[in-house]
Amino acid sequence: MDKPLKTPPPYPIVSVDHALRVATMLQMEGGTTVSRVAERLGVARSTAHRLLAMLVYRDFAVQDENRVYRAGPVLELAAHSQSQVSRLRAAALPHLHRLVDLLDETVNLTVRTGDTARFIASAESGQALRVGSREGMVFPAHRTTAGLLLLAALDDDELADVYSASRYQDRPADRPDLTRLRSELDLIGRNGFAVNQERSERGLVAVGVPVHDRDGAAVAGLSVSMPSVRYDPHDLRPLIATLSGAARALEADLTAGG
After folding, report:
1. Phi and psi, residue 133, nearest 5°
2. In Å, what is the CA distance from 8 to each residue of 23, 56, 71?
3. 74, 61, 59: which is closest to 22 by C-alpha?
4. 199, 143 in Cβ contact below 8 A?
5. Fold for the domain defined by 14-75
6. What is the pLDDT of residues 80-128, one digit of tens each?
């Protein structure tokens, strides 16, 4: 088994985590308000205001005349509010929240860029023992549920290009075995879903399905994550059916939205 990634630090600094999550919101969504930040983080408005004020001070954010906070100079690569990722995220959020209501587990939407997978939206379970939000996090694509789903859509030449040896000259140990990976991706492609058992994090199991655009291309992965102690393989089929239904509904919304 591959060595798991992203084990939470033993002494997390909540205020830093909150500030980073707000910066991620600004980068991916294009703008936010004090009340929205307070709601998303589950903090008081005064706390949200202090977080945003510090981000403005450090040029991670700017405030416009309508009191809306937007990405500042440090986040100059932020996606515009009408970007593909932003539209995808906005369309997906209602479906993620409905899935949480149905499954009572944390749900994520993830996209792939090259050999990395980025979580662009998360909706957390309300259970005390739960997988936390992964929004904004970046992992190696071949180590995540959604990343595997999106890599499975590539042909052999495309996969070889993503994992070209020349790109890993300084970190050869990070390059996956392509023969083994191709075999795994072919199985995922035939099944139409992926299961990740502690591949990215210890004690975590994730199950996911792809989300397609109007042309049938896989553009994201929709997944549910749970503590491994709550995963029952006998529930896999109904779990996939529920995720697939949400993915088809999201695809319909994306098509209708143009």
Report:
1. -60, 135
2. 19, 27, 27
3. 61
4. yes
5. Arc Repressor Mutant, subunit A (1.10.10)
6. 444 678 789 989 999 999 999 999 999 999 999 889 998 999 999 999 9
Hey, CA dihedral for 142, 212, 203, 39, is it positive or negative? positive
Question: What's the Rg (C-alpha) of the chain?
Answer: 19
**CA dist list (Å): 125 to 26, 58, 173, 241:** 23, 33, 35, 19
Backbone angles phi, psi at 185, to 5 degrees: -65, -35
Question: What stretch(es) of the chain map to CATH 1.10.10.10?
Answer: 14-75
> Which pLDDT tens digit goes with each residue over 56-89?
988 788 888 788 998 887 775 444 444 678 789 9
| CATH class as words, domain 84-256 | alpha beta
